[in-house]
Design brief:
Strand content of chain B: 5-15%
Number of helices of chain A: 12
Largest sheet of chain A: none
Number of strands of chain A: 1
Shape of chain B: rod-shaped
Shape of chain A: globular
Number of helices of chain B: 2
Radius of gyration of chain A: 20 Å
Distance between the termini of chain B: 46 Å
Strand content of chain A: under 5%
Largest sheet of chain B: none
Oligomer: heterodimer
Number of strands of chain B: 1
Helix content of chain B: 55-70%
């Protein structure tokens, strides 16, 4: 037996692949649940009830899905161009830190300040990924290593800042940064829940990314660079310019995730505010087959898995 | 779920990790076909 590359991938396979992957994963996890002495059917029913069983649980699940959509988009954009951005977690934290830092003392009205803070979060995430992208383009440094290791550096830096200059004096010794001004908190999407309009921001971002990738010259260049870099260069596409553009877009999306999480949920930054949003974004992007619409569905699935088992 | 059934909530991390692994295998079979 041997593996032969398909000349054309049928659409049904693209749709069936993630569904089959999820089904197999649930069967394998079911074996572990059964080994723990619990019926997998009961456990999964309880998980669904925990994530979708009430108005509160649905809104909690969507609140969790919001940063996952954005970090998933960040990974999908980068992976399409074969830029292996494993640094979504660091870009998430740097976006969150800059948003909290500036948002604590920004003297602007709320409706103006919120977009400004989001733009700053995006810019900081983009800048963080621009470094590894430059190192790859200039010196062929593997971006898997640089982006992955930057995560730890950024989280240590966040720890330094929230124990030092950005420490919240009203946090009763809890290591947290100063909170953003109340005027800059994102309005609730559903009253008396934590679901905020950042969810709509994430959906709009998914639409914008789809538009960029499917309907612009830059999107076509990105796909070409990912499918065959040599052929793309031969066709006259500037690979350095395309990859740097992809890096800036990807970093900006992950930075926006951190910014939205601060403005919508946490107000301040702690080193435990992310249960791995950056890393889970990679899973989301892969489950979505790197398609922006699939990212939304995959993020909701992963959020259901994360929220469902919590007691 | 974890309180009702006694299954640790870390099962969520296991499920997500398994999803990634199975998706990578699925992508392999999407890109390639097995020939005798």
């Amino acid at each position: 037996m041997r593996l032969e590359r398909r000349a054309h991938v049928p659409l049904y396979l693209v749709v069936v692949a993630p569904l089959a992957a999820v089904a197999v994963a649930l069967i394998l996890a079911g074996a572990l649940i059964a080994a723990a002495g619990v019926s997998p059917a009961t456990a999964y029913a309880e998980m669904l009830r925990g994530a979708l069983g009430s108005r509160l649980s649905v809104t909690e699940m969507l609140t969790r899905a919001t940063p996952l959509i954005l970090t998933g988009l960040a990974a999908a954009v980068a992976f399409r161009a074969r830029l292996w951005n494993i640094g979504g977690e660091g870009q998430f934290f740097v976006g969150a830190l800059v948003t909290a830092w500036v948002g604590h003392s920004l003297a602007l009205p709320g409706p103006v300040g919120i977009p400004v803070l989001m733009a700053l979060g995006m810019a900081s995430g983009a800048l963080l990924l621009a470094g590894p992208a430059y190192l790859r383009l200039r010196f062929s440094v593997d971006e898997v290593v640089t982006t992955l290791l930057l995560n730890f550096i950024v989280i240590l830096f966040v720890g330094l800042m929230i124990e030092g200059p950005l420490r919240d004096p009203l946090a009763f010794g809890w290591p947290s940064s100063v909170p953003v001004d109340g005027d800059f908190r994102l309005p609730d999407l559903v009253a008396r829940t934590r679901l905020h309009i950042g969810f709509l921001v994430a959906i709009v971002a998914a639409g914008a990314v789809w538009l960029i990738l499917a309907r612009t010259v830059f999107g076509a260049e990105t796909r070409a660079a990912g499918l065959n870099a040599s052929a793309a260069a031969f066709a006259g596409i500037s690979l350095p310019r395309t990859l740097m553009g992809v890096a800036l877009l990807s970093g900006a999306l992950a930075g926006l995730a951190g910014s939205v999480e601060v403005l919508g949920v946490t107000a301040g930054v702690t080193t435990t505010m992310s249960p791995g949003f950056g890393y889970a974004g990679i899973v989301v992007a892969m489950l979505a087959a790197l398609h922006p619409a699939g990212v939304v569905a995959a993020a909701i699935f992963v959020a259901t898995v994360f929220v469902g088992p919590t007691p | 779920m974890s309180r009702a059934t006694g299954v640790p909530s870390f099962i969520a991390d296991v499920i997500v990790a398994l999803c990634l692994l199975t998706m990578l295998v699925a992508l392999l079979f999407t890109t390639y076909r097995v020939r005798r």
